[in-house]
Specification:
Layout (H helix, E strand, L loop, with lengths): L1 H10 L2 H14 L3 H7 L4 H8 L4 H22 L3 H10 L7 H16 L4 H25 L8 H17 L3 H17 L3 H12 L8 E2 L9 E2 H18 L3 H17 L3 H20 L14
Antiparallel strand pairs: 1-2
Length: 296
């Protein structure tokens, strides 16, 4: 604290000065350069807003509002910018103070608008962002205690349901994988498997490249990603003793791999399926499958 006070006395708040310089530079870019930075600059603006500095937040929000204005003028839509905000939003850093500053600044900007079409679009976007802030704060404010794991899972499910309902797929996938991590850490492997199937349902057997998500899911084709997600789901379902569902997943994998002439991988999936069928025939299960609740 003493060091921080000395730095502030000598040089001032560098965060505020840096944000002010950012606004000044932005105003000098011109429309062509501004357009080239949209929507990629959104993540950087959000990072500046989340600094615990009111002046930095205000400057970043000013630029964001210019981005909204430019986007509406060029496309008559704010969807591209809104999607980027959802995808880059860092729920772990966005505290209540940030939410209040951010939404308050948007309210003030919307109140100043005279173009009714733009104002309506901004109100819709602000409503969606307000819901995002509220749901992530609800999740963030839960105590970091295993006793609250079920509450945390319920909050994530509510958030994923909302993200899916408004088509924010990348943000939805991040929350689903967070849900998987929670279930695996808590030993509820059946639920982890079902959560992974939620993600698999959004993937196609396609050669399209999908971005890096984690060491388990590097940049790869959507085909490879879907195969990896289904394999991980099957492993978790097997651990959770939901054998019939694991068999179904391995059957799907084997059929697809055989159709793609990936015979070695298809054989591995069939062998895994056979091993689980053997468990079904010989193993006593005290947990009944009917008690497993899908997390959606």
């Amino acid at each position: 604290a003493a060091t921080r006070k000395r730095v502030l006395c000598r040089w001032g708040d560098l965060r505020a000065r840096g944000a002010s310089m950012l606004v000044e530079l932005w105003t000098k870019l011109g429309d062509a350069r501004v357009g080239a930075l949209i929507p990629s600059i959104i993540g950087d603006l959000l990072a500046v807003m989340m600094l615990s500095c009111e002046a930095a937040t205000a400057s970043a929000v000013d630029i964001l509002c210019w981005v909204f204005k430019w986007e509406y003028a060029s496309a008559k839509s704010l969807l591209r910018v809104e999607v980027e905000i959802f995808d880059r939003y860092d729920a772990e850093r966005a505290d209540e103070e940030f939410g209040s500053r951010f939404l308050g600044a948007l309210d003030a900007y919307i109140a100043s608008l005279t173009d009714e079409g733009f104002k309506t679009k901004m109100e819709e976007t602000k409503s969606n962002l307000g819901r995002l802030v509220a749901l992530t704060l609800e999740l963030q404010q839960l105590p970091d205690d295993p006793l609250f794991d079920q509450d945390r899972i319920a909050a994530i499910l509510e958030l994923t349901s909302y993200l899916l309902s408004i088509g924010r797929l990348e943000a939805y996938v991040r929350q689903v994988l967070h849900l998987v991590e929670l279930h695996e850490a808590g030993g509820t492997f059946a639920e982890a498997g079902y959560a992974l199937l939620m993600y698999a349902d959004k993937l196609e057997w396609s050669p399209e490249i999908v971005p890096y998500l984690s060491p388990a899911f590097p940049e790869q084709t959507m085909y490879e990603r879907k195969r990896a997600v289904l394999q991980k789901a099957a492993v978790n379902l097997d651990k959770g003793k939901v054998y019939e569902e694991a068999v179904r997943v391995y059957s799907t994998l084997a059929a697809e791999l055989e159709g793609a002439m990936a015979y070695a991988e298809a054989a591995a999936a069939l062998q895994a399926k056979a091993a689980i069928l053997s468990k079904v025939a010989t193993e006593e299960r005290f947990e009944t499958v009917s008690l497993v609740i899908r997390p959606w």
